[in-house]
Design a protein that fits this description.
- The protein has one domain: Sandwich (Immunoglobulin-like), CATH 2.60.40.
- It is 18% helix and 38% strand.
- A hairpin with a 4-residue loop joins β8 and β9.
- The two termini are 42 Å apart.
Amino acid sequence: MKRSPTAAPTRRRFLAVAGGVALAPLFVRSARATPATMAAAIREVVGEAPVREGKVTLELPPLVENGNAVPMTVTVESPMTAAEHVKRIHVFNEKNPQPYIATFHLGPRAGKAKISTRVRLADSQKVVAIAELSDGSFWSASADMIVTLAACVEETP
């Protein structure tokens, strides 16, 4: 009687599976963003335009115990008139699974260029806020965070 190839483990099958498991980490992408992927995500938004520091204030606590709900406020100095206003506020991070956290759309009718929300942070990292103004300029601020209990710990291939 002929055996089915899946019926019993063989030395050859064991070596093939063990070799596949040993090499798997070489082919699995990291589930976290890096400073390089964050820089690439920022370039996708701003293109070749220069990003200047100033006009933006990013408020995050410097140390949080739990990264699941970190309070964040971004304020931009702008008169918020029809001629001069903030169009968008973009938020990026360097270690979450995705480097692009969010975009907030504003206009002159917003009255004030300020957003407040909570974000999940996977680990201690840098967060960057970039404001896109109606004149096409980009302004930024960044903050370094220390997170003692990380969020976003799911490993996805």
